[in-house]
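Model the whole thing, not chain by chain.
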Amino acid sequence: MQTSIIKKFAMAISGLFLIIFLLQHFIINVTSIFSESIFNQFSHFMGKNFVVQFIAQPILIFGVIFHFVMGFYLEIQNRRATKYEYFKENGSANSSWMSRNMIWSGLVILSFLVLHFIDFWIPEMNYKYIEFLPDDPNRYYEELVHKFEMPWRVLLYCISFGLLSMHLLHGFSSALKSMGANKYYSKFVKNLIHLYSIGIPLGFCFIALYHFISHI
Amino acid sequence: MKLKLKIWRQKNAKSKGKIVNYDIDNISPDMSFLEMLDVLNADLILKNDEPVSFDHDCREGICGSCSLFINGQAHGPDRLVTTCQLHMRKFNDGDTIYIEPFRAKAFPVIKDLVVDRSAFDRIQHAGGYISINTSGNTQDANSIPVNKNDADLAFDAATCIGCGACVATCKNSSAMLFVGAKVSQYSLLPQGQTEASRRVVNMVNQMDLEGFGNCSNTGACEVECPKGISLDNIARMNRDFIKAKISS
């Protein structure tokens, strides 16, 4: 993990892993729009399955922590390499805002994840492994809907996913390039990256707004 | 043309520099940017002031000596040109122009607008060559068949003049476009295959030792490169490096 290329490669692998996880998360969440019972069944399976809970979940937590720690580490290294700032710099003339501000969009996503952990993961761990409350396979949908009753939470959720979309618009293609994919990979792959980077965060926002509006 | 210039002045590598304002008049739009600086320096010499130091040599976009960061962009606002090929017609009468040296920890300022880019030389020394026996029995390069597409890509990579605009414009001061081009120009050709793994590993290691930053694929280097070196070269270097590490 000494050379810059290996560090970027590791960063890319962790990013792509999180991209796959996000898709799986979206598929489960989107079922809450169509069917309360399917959403509850999926959530119950994820919450009770041994492989998901004790193998996939620790890998996911490691992946998230690794991605953020490596991101900060690379940012510190890059700031040391630049050392001096220009009096006048015209970054927008040659690169996108997203690509220049990955650390800031990443920080917003990290803040959101902290909130998500406090909101969801910690109560879930408390419910299952500390208080050992009775198993209720039908509680998940109500818990989700309750979360989206508060407008400030929905707003925060949408802002975070907006920044996630920007993070993905650069990060997804950057990860492929860091792994050696050519800039001119097929148009299909390019379109797929755009579709994912805009579509998935937009989908998450739609789910939040749907439940919020349904309960007004 | 009448212009206001804000130029970085720094006595030597150890002193602290600052931006100094100059007013300049009677500049022809047909002058090159360096000719405009020549006019300024002639004025300064007549006034017994210290002229502004800046790098230049061929003044036809080949040597890679000129290295100015003009109005927030490496080699100024024009595309696919070096500073010596930039003309004053790209500016308007009455404009204020910021002129700064290329900035990076690995490119320390020597004086005013002159920076030390010897880090690039050391990267080249680490592997940017082919060890050919030149004792008289060297095989004629024309006798080795090369795929036309590979030859074109290798030539494109070889057009890198090592000016350092990629480092100067990169928000991370990354040298990966330069190193990517220098690795690619050999790795694409049959003559470069024998030393391919050693070359990429040594050049990347030297790049890291010099203190350049990590590439975050913003693409700014490709846009500002006066020779239009493609980001594909970085991806190719990444592939070659990972392959070399796996096979070693």
